[in-house]
Amino acid sequence: MAETTNKGEEVVRAGVAACTGRLLPPPVGTSDWATFSRDSYCVDKTLILKDLIDSKSRVVLFTRPRRFGKTTALEMIRAFYEDESSLFQDKKIWAAGEVYRKEQGTHPVIFLSFKDVKWKTFGESIKFLNALLAPCVGKFAKAVEALELETERDRLLRVMREQGDETDLSLSLGLLSKAVHAFTKRLPVILIDEYDQPITSASTHGYYDEMCTFMRVFLSGALKDNKHCHIGIMTGVLRVAKEGILSGLNNPKVWTVFESEYSQYFGFTEEEVAEMARYYGAEDKLPEIKAWYDGYDFGGTEIYNPWSVLRYFDCHCRPDAYWLDTSSNDLISAIVRDLPHDMVRTLEALLRDETPRVQMAKELGPYKDVMANKSSLYALLVSAGYLKVASPIEEGMCKVALPNHELSLVFVNDIKAKINAALAVGTSDIVGALLDRDADALRQAIAAFLLESVSYFDAAAEGFFHGLTLGFLAILRKRFRVLSNVESGEGRFDIALKPLVEPFPAFIIEVKAADSATDDLKALARDARAQIDGKKYDATFRAEGITDIEKIGLAYFKDKVELCKNLEEAS
């Protein structure tokens, strides 16, 4: 259980509010901890420092979804080691004891963020990395100039002038820590934010091997048995230890969303959200906040999305999918673009607010192999915050679910939009014609859908069903319950839409695929339509008192389609 904010901090906040006549605002739009810890509402996460100091770890990696406080945590750690003690005297770390207070202000900090390394070529990425490293080296220019070895000094000076080559850059972080240690007589702390972003972009844009080699040398030079480093702390979205960029390091401590250690330091606990609601006079809003932003499980700790909670209070307690507006992970986009067919039924179940059972890995293999490994795909979706683990992982299997209402909207709007983008033609035209009961327009819309998506689904019947069903689920989920391959009458229908609100009818759709171009598609569509009656697929609906039922038979071959809605007209 996470500790609640200490009394000293509550007194400080009350004093500020009394003096200014206003409440401190939520810290929205900045990760500069040193600034917002004074001027904004600050959730005290400083005990992460105590745990890090007690652990005596040399290299640590924290993986969490985007906007869950990774950068803020590193900024706070930087401030602890570099800035004045007044920032921490009302915080939990100060009350933890003298042994921790003595650590404050004792180490220089080398801080790098790779969050914007999103270039399409390796050359562009290397150039941008030099631009990132130049001010980092420039911060310690005197230490660089004092290096005894001319070759080492010249390498860092070239990096500082943004003239470094690939070798200069790959060695720069290790050399910089050596220079800082020699000059200040103190071991530097190395902080690297979004360590996995360069590899993510490289995997997406096709220069994975080059970037992987570079990052392996860059990180191992700075963090492997480096006697010039006090501790190295990295953050990212994904754990990718098996792919090699961390293979040169000696047993780094890796803390993911699956481990209980450090789980309370990224995101807000229930106690922290309750205290924030009390501060802003919004305790009556706690059920709404919970429904929208709770539901994450980090190593057994219940966690709220911190970005969305802060935006909620900043927007006068107006609920919205605030996380949707933040930048997406490139690899998520690539995975959804190339979505394997056998994952689609899982997505269907999730969009029906169910908890499907899936294979689950606790770490990813090489990025380039993720698409071939379903357990890695689901691990990625959990690590990136799209899904939560809803049952214990046993023998590599567990249930997954959408964490909350916000993620339900994000899932529909973000992931489904990418599916539609991949297909080039979405399902909105199909849905519109369906609701209008316009058979000709429906046939034309499905024909257009097939024409654009036939290569994506390899003209497979199963792929067509899945694409169509996902489209219905995403667009119609508030008006219909979308059913797929469910028993009714004397068999299983392909797709059915059960109305949740008036005045919509129910729909039953049976689809058949021709074996060759010579098959009679019109006759096949009529057979599909007749099968609905013959197998009494409408029995379940009629038993529930639903009598307005549209029955549609579809037949297709590659990008050709025929439709039968009325057997009398088709005969």
Describe the structure.
The structure is a single chain. The chain is of the alpha/beta class and 571 residues long. The chain has five domains: 12-42, no CATH class; 56-255, Rossmann fold, CATH 3.40.50; 264-320; 330-412, no CATH class; 424-570, no CATH class. 47% of the residues lie in helices and 14% in strands. The protein has helices at residues 7-20, 33-39, 47-55, 70-82, 92-95, 98-101, 122-138, 141-145, 150-160, 166-184, 197-205, 208-223, 270-279, 286-293, 306-314, 330-337, 344-351, 374-383, 405-423, 428-435, 439-457, 461-476, 521-534, 539-543, 567-570, and strands at residues 59-63, 109-113, 189-193, 231-236, 253-255, 296-298, 301-303, 357-359, 388-389, 397-401, 480-488, 491-499, 506-513, 549-557, 560-564. A five-stranded parallel beta sheet has the order 2-3-4-1-5. Strands 11-12-13-14-15 form a five-stranded mixed beta sheet. A hairpin with a 7-residue loop joins strand 9 and strand 10. The longest helix is centred in the first third of the chain and has 19 residues, at 166-184. The chain is elongated.
